[in-house]
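Support request from a user on the community tier.

User writes: "When I paste my structure tokens into the form, the page sometimes reloads and wipes my input. The last time it worked, I copied everything first. Here is what I submitted, just in case something in the input itself triggers the reload:"
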């Protein structure tokens, strides 16, 4: 049984990914930051799963997260870097440095730290059996999210670049690294940005004329993790209804 860590797995795309992975036979480590009850509920719905609290922007927490997964479920062979933060919509001139640092700490540095720990376990050069990493980016990386959260968009642009670079760096070590770039998806993230109904407001901008569901993103993630994508690395898959 393969062991998967899903960061930010207590809700939205993370929870949908964790559930689908369990259906596909993975043992799943559901990472969460604050909502223990939600994470434990997700884990309880699976045959073999644990919920582990960790702030992925904190190096010691990331190390502890991976050690817990190794100990309780088996050596980690798959990682979905889904955890991300978002803050209230505003223009750049209203933002302070503390907000920018919070955004990059979780969305960009957190993704890099988790990937580092995954590579240490998966790399054939370090005795690993290989594995797969999927980073959850955002359509904001392409559009820039002007007037809403250019800082968030910038962190996701960093994730895209990191995905391509790491994929090439570890390609010979039996590790595949890819990303999905969701468009407007119905998740609680929009409420954190101050507009719970945002998807319904902007869905007419999508060629398919609707927002996406977390399960649709999860399906793309699980394909990238699977052997069906065995010759795919360094790819960024848009799951955005054509936008």
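"...and here is what came back when it finally went through:"
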């Amino acid at each position: 049984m393969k062991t998967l860590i899903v960061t930010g797995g207590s809700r939205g795309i993370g929870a949908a990914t964790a559930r689908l992975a369990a259906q596909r036979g993975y043992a799943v480590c559901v990472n969460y930051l604050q909502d223990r009850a939600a994470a434990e509920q997700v884990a309880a719905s699976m045959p073999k799963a644990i919920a582990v609290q960790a702030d992925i922007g904190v190096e010691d927490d990331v190390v502890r997260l991976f050690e817990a997964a190794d100990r309780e479920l088996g050596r980690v062979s798959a990682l979905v870097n889904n955890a991300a933060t978002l803050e209230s919509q505003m223009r750049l001139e209203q933002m302070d440095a503390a907000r920018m640092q919070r955004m990059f700490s979780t969305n960009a540095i957190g993704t890099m730290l988790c990937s580092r720990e995954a590579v240490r376990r998966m790399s054939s050069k370090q005795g690993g059996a290989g594995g797969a990493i999927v980073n959850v980016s955002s359509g904001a990386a392409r559009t820039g999210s002007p007037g809403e959260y250019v800082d968030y968009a910038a962190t996701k642009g960093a994730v895209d670049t990191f995905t391509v670079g790491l994929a090439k760096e570890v390609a010979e070590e039996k590790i595949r690294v890819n990303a999905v770039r969701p468009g407007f998806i119905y998740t609680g993230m929009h409420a954190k940005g101050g507009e719970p109904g945002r998807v319904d407001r902007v869905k007419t901008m999508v060629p398919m004329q609707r927002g996406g569901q977390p399960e649709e993103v999860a399906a793309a993630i699980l394909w990238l993790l699977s052997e069906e994508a065995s010759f795919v690395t360094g790819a960024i898959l848009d799951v955005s209804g054509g936008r």
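Agent notes: The reload is a front-end session timeout and is unrelated to the input. DSSP finds nine helices and seven strands in the chain. The chain has one domain: 3-239. Escalated to web team.
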